[in-house]
Amino acid sequence: MSSAGNAPRTTQRRFDGELNDAELWWRDHQVWLQDHGYMLRPRYKPNWIPSWCKDNDGDYFMREDGRNIVRGDVLDATRISDGVIITLKKVRPSVHPYEIEIGRYFSSEPRASDPANHCVPIYDVLDVPDDPDLKLIVMSLLRKFFDPPFLTVGEAMEFVRQSIEGLRFMHAHHVAHRDCGKMNIMMDPRPLYPQLYHFISTWATRDMSGTAKYYSRTRCPVKYYFIDFGLSRRFDPAQGPPRSRPIWGADRTVPEFQKSLDACDPFPTDVYYLGNVFKTVFLQEYTGLDFMNPLIEDMVQHEPSKRPTMDQVAVKFDMIMAGLGMWKMRARLPRRDEIWVVRWYKAIAHTFRTIYYILTRRPALPRA
Questions:
Q1: For the chain, the helix, strand and coil percentages under 3-state DSSP, each to the nearest 5
Q2: Number of CB atoms found within 10 A of residue 228's CB
Q3: Residue 98 · residue 234 · CB < 8 Å
Q4: Whole-prediction pTM value?
């Protein structure tokens, strides 16, 4: 029989839309964060009164302060000094001892200003005063790289180019990401969403008054970033071939992990992860990208030793790009599940959009 001190905490609901247990931590640290220059949204102020309670309107779901966070370890905030929206992430060094170290390594010069660096910038690291094993990373506000959808072959190829460049940069500095799957590659949304959007309801404006407006990647190119270095490791080449025990990331299809849990070279596994992103996000979702199939199949080979290095991937990708003309790059990227009516409508819209981009000299490969 457990004692009262060990019993799980239960929270009695007072009203719909109230703070969940994960959000209480942020509320309790709101004043401390404000003192350190970061303002949380009104929902997390200690004296918060829900907006729908003020005007006796029970429709909390469509209120700016009515949406619960999905992940308790990540939240947006405003940097008070300049009004920039940033992201705060909780990190426990006892669990992920290298995440802050590697993030700071790529956020320091001369690496930070290298255009090939696609690691999320770390602006600050805060020591949480009431928990010596908890820190807050302050980093850029980012969005899923595949939302909104890609519209042209050129937009997709620019993502591929940047992600190859970014992982190649990490490997050149002897860092294996070890979890560079679909959910750990994101983009800077500011060019697409100049007015940004609500952190939880990303389809809506920040005040939840309507739908967030956005541009295409061709009109406003974006930069893509690798995030989450919790499983990453930096190796010393002087100590011999890199070896580490397998650790499962979000992608559970890694062939070498299915066969053995013995220590192995993590760099070919990174190549597999990225190749599988290309395969699942593009080849399986869109038509018109079959020319990428040989490279992708090379990256996801079952035998790690047969996969190309990221240097070799970059060379092969450059050869593919050299064979693509402007019209292929500007071609629309239809989804495989599109019905004919939608495809016909989108093809017409794409034609007029392409004419506009040509007249305004927008490149077919939208480099950020």
A1: 35, 15, 50
A2: 23
A3: yes
A4: 0.92
